[in-house]
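[retry 2/3] LysR family transcriptional regulator: previous attempt timed out, resubmitting with same input.
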Amino acid sequence: MIETRLLRQFVVVAEELHFSRAAERLHMAQPPLSQAIRRLEEHIGYPLFVRDKRTVELTSAGMALLGKAHELLEALNEGVAYTRRVAQGIEGNLVIAVISLNYYPGFWRALGIFREQMPSVELSFIEATTREQVELLESGEADIGVMRCPGTTTPLLTIERLLFDPIQVALPSSHPLALSNTVRLEDLARESFVMSARALGQGFHDQLLALCKGAGFSPRIVQYARQIQTVLGLVAAGYGVALVPASFERSGLQDVVFRPLRHSASQELGSVALNIASNNAVISPLRDAFVEMVKRHA
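[retry 2/3] LysR family transcriptional regulator: success.
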């Protein structure tokens, strides 16, 4: 490997074609500079300069090396500058894993502000369930997760709440309770339910079961779906009712109505928390800047 110091010294000599002036530019004595150039020539195996008492000229090998040396040093300088910008949190790449966020306009507003302020940052998105996001964060395949509560211990992750999303009931538009302004949770005890599977989001699934248990019943689940959009499609088709975050009322899905629930549960149990998560074992100023931006604006 050729030291970058030797390359820089070679470039100055090639530009000056005079060892004394080159040594002056490099703030060093001429003999050590001459020795450095000889070491470089020995490493390459060919002379880089033709020297006599009056003149110094580049050989064909020297001319070839000069062009490549400029490219290498420029790339090195840019690499160092890029590294500094990444360390300062103003440039780089982030992989963000998200649940369905179509109906959380605050998140997209925060994303737009981040893009305006950090145009050099490249963002990549992975749609994933909460359970999948935990795995992606712990393995280092994602930098940030936007998820519901995992429902399991996650010692490697820092999880911060962004907002509470009240739980409502989604009903087929033909359902008798669709005529009510609000629905008592107890009135759903005999209904068929559509839910997402526990394996895809243990925390949310267990929360819904606990909410129903507090109202004195266990829901009779007749269909499972991976995404809440699919859950709502099954409700529209008449398969049952569903407990979903209120933000999904913005879906505009036909044949489904959303009604607030009346119950005595706490806010933590009666609402779904939307969280932002990261791996606390990884140091990333850029990731931290993104998290703070989303927390401030979402």
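[retry 2/3] LysR family transcriptional regulator: The mean pLDDT is 90.
[retry 2/3] clearing retry counter.
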